[in-house]
Design a protein that fits this description.
The N and C termini lie far apart (73 Å). The model has no long low-confidence stretch (mean pLDDT 96). It contains 15 helices and 18 strands. By secondary structure, it is an alpha/beta fold. It folds into 2 domains: 151 residues, Rossmann fold (3-Layer(aba) Sandwich), CATH 3.40.50; 362 residues, Alpha-Beta Barrel (L-fucose Isomerase, Chain A, domain 3), CATH 3.20.14.10.
């Protein structure tokens, strides 16, 4: 008889009847985990008290690591070790006070049998809510059941009430009556015809999405499976960051200096210094300008209609950050890039739609928005932002709740007050970017916007669309919000029409939100409806969220 090495069955220790397990997922970068650990400790202490008040014990499923000086799960490898040792049937809370890489723990959450609760602090400085929204979107895509809570105050009655409900029932939900199914909305004939014609054109002629390495920063929710993407007419060209690095090294200094000179002639301000570790240096900017030229040339080589650069991992050890590149690509008015032989200007007079952090959901959305707005005579520049934080305006200038949409590094200058003249560039924080690099920073101008998000749920591509207004806040309030978040990054003060803070958090399946301006409120309404028609014709399941304006005009 043959003898086999049969693995021993290992049963993790059972959690106590009143015990709730806690995991804290973190960044991949040690410097970020160390910097953010104190905020996580503070949040966990408050959450532990809240759980104790409800008659339960919160037990950490993994320990503080003295050698690394933090207690986050810092890799997928570590996450697998943690989940292999915990009770798969125990109630589990994922507590997040920081940005986190969802793939570190997604495997364990997918196979966990007990109830799951994701919890975030409400803070701009410590973006737990951004990390939680990414994790929620990833769990939704993975068809994993979970509940979610967020709060500024862990003793607040609404939070305590919902926490108790989850502890007793294993689930908690939030009202989402602001969501309107597309079949319940009447789209005017002109907008429907345009949307359907653009969808038909895209599916017939097809488009190429250039992806410089997939899966940035653990964002499982930002990857569209090919079998869902291809029916829209969009196909991936899988490119390598190493190719972008190599092409960057082939660009001449003179070509790169011409890019910077073009920007400065239009009023762009570079906040430079001489110390590489802490300042934005001329050498960093030279490399960023080379990367911009390289990205456009590679896009042209492969016939890409939209491209996404991974932004942080991989290139961060070789080149300065790609922010300046990304925001510039998304602008119609940008430095000209000629082919290698000098015979052609590439993508002349138009943006090269770029989806930051290779968020393919934003890539599909951005391409659709570009084509739709171009056909409608609306501004074509669009970008994603982080749904970073929000607060009331203490100056009383704006009565509504004002979101901080804050992209992690760059937005198209067409969105800024005074355009290029209102743009500046500052060094990315060294905690994330040892090689430095400048951002593309500005304050978004007041106006009417359409916001949207493509996401994967129930094995299908879906899209939420809504309306919002960008408002102007006093300079001191803008500065307060910048200092409470990340002052090197571009900011948008947004009021979402008919969608409260908690409704947005309950429904939104991403840390990202796509935005595009229109020339007027009525034209923004038309653009939103035409986008809905286009998405529907492409096979996406569409919902309209909130209202058309602050007064509550329905869809």
């Amino acid at each position: 008889m043959d003898t086999y090495a049969i693995p021993e069955k290992v049963k993790p220790a059972k959690a106590g009847k009143k015990q709730v397990l806690l995991v804290a997922n973190g960044d991949l970068r040690l410097t970020a985990n160390q910097r953010c650990w104190a905020a996580q400790q503070e949040m966990e202490a408050e959450l532990t008290k809240a759980v104790a008040e409800a008659g339960h014990e919160l037990v950490r499923a993994h320990q503080f690591k003295p050698a690394e000086q933090h207690g986050f799960i810092g890799s997928q490898k570590e996450g697998m070790q943690v989940f292999a040792s915990i009770d798969p049937d125990a109630p589990l809370i994922v507590a997040e006070a920081v940005w986190q890489y969802s793939h570190h723990i997604l495997h364990g959450l997918i196979t966990h049998r007990g109830p799951i609760l994701t919890v975030a602090n409400w803070s701009g400085t410590w973006p737990g809510l951004v990390g939680m929204l990414n994790l929620n979107g990833s769990l939704t895509k993975a068809r994993t059941k979970y509940s979610s809570l967020w709060t500024e105050n862990f003793t607040a009655k609404p939070f305590v009430k919902n926490l108790n409900r989850w502890l007793k029932k294993g689930s908690v939900s939030h009202p989402t009556d602001h969501v309107v199914r597309l079949k319940d909305v009447k789209i005017p004939s002109n907008e429907r015809k345009l949307g359907e014609a653009l969808a038909s054109q895209l599916q017939r002629d097809k488009a190429i999405m250039g992806v410089f390495d997939e899966g940035c920063m653990g964002m499982f929710n930002a990857i569209i499976p090919d079998h869902l993407l291809n029916p829209t007419g969009v196909y991936k060209e899988r490119l390598s960051q190493s190719a972008l690095y190599y092409e960057t090294t082939r660009v001449s200094d003179d070509e790169a200096r011409a890019v910077r000179r073009w920007m400065e002639e239009r009023g762009m301000k570079f906040r430079t210094g001489t110390v590489h570790e802490q300042d934005l240096t001329d050498q960093q900017l030279l490399l960023q300008c080379k990367m911009y030229i390289a990205a456009v040339r590679i896009a042209d080589d492969y016939g890409c209609h939209t491209i996404g650069i991974q932004y942080q991992q991989g290139l961060k050890d070789l080149l300065p950050a790609s922010d300046l590149v990304e925001g510039t690509l998304n602008n119609g008015d940008r430095p000209p890039v000629r082919s290698r032989d000098g015979s052609r200007v590439l993508y002349e007079g138009e943006p090269v739609p770029h989806f930051n952090e290779v968020d393919e959901c934003a890539g599909l959305d951005g391409l659709m928005t570009y084509r739709l707005h171009k056909a409608m005579g609306q501004p074509v520049e669009n970008t994603l932002h982080d749904l970073r934080w929000g607060d009331w305006d203490p100056t009383g200038t704006v009565e509504d709740y004002v979101w901080v949409f804050l992209i992690s590094g760059s937005a198209p200058p067409a969105h800024f007050v005074d355009g290029w003249a209102g743009a500046s560039s500052e060094r990315q924080p060294a905690m994330y970017f040892p090689s430095g690099g400048g951002t593309l920073k500005g304050i978004s101008k007041p106006g009417e916007i359409v916001w949207s998000r493509v996401y994967v749920a129930d094995g299908k591509l879906k899209m939420d669309i809504g309306r919002a207004g960008v408002v102007e806040l006093p300079a001191e309030e803008t500065e307060r919000r910048w200092q409470a978040t990340t002052p090197q990054w571009p900011i948008m003060h947004a009021v979402t029409y008919g969608v409260s803070r908690d409704q947005m958090m309950a429904r939104h399946k991403s840390n990202h939100i796509q935005v595009a301006y229109a020339n007027s409120a009525a034209e923004a309404d038309n653009a939103a409806l035409a986008k809905a028609a286009m998405a529907d014709a492409l096979g996406l399941e569409v919902a309209l969220c909130g209202t058309r304006n602050k007064k509550g005009k329905s869809w």
